[in-house]
Design goal:
104 residues; 6-stranded antiparallel beta sheet; globular; alpha+beta; single chain
Length: 104
């Protein structure tokens, strides 16, 4: 699957950030991630949602551990966007390589 919907910035070996100006969608991201045979998405849960400021936090459980997706839609311009992070560098390495292979 060739995804051209967003580019990410690698913030560290544990996190990435996607600017709010890009058309990021959780379902497309999880579909791309599921295309990698080295990782299986087991479950996804919304752990926080608010309307002031508008934000959404989701935990994704995979066969390699958990990562978190935080989407901020309001606030300071430099804070708006999507952050994906985990405390497991090996899990994030798979996330980075899968996104790179998909053409993001």
């Amino acid at each position: 699957m060739k995804a051209k919907y967003c580019k990410y910035i690698k913030m560290s070996e544990f996190s990435l950030w996607i600017d709010i100006e890009q058309p990021y969608r959780n379902d497309e991201f999880l579909e791309i991630l599921s295309s990698n045979s080295n990782i299986e998405v087991i479950d996804s849960k919304i752990i926080h949602s608010s309307i002031g400021p508008l934000e959404h936090t989701q935990t994704v459980i995979t066969s390699l551990g958990e990562f978190t997706i935080v989407q901020a839609f309001e606030g300071f311009e430099e804070d708006c966007g999507t952050t994906i992070f985990s405390n497991k560098a090996d899990l994030m390495k798979i996330v980075f390589s899968t996104l790179d292979a998909a053409g993001t």
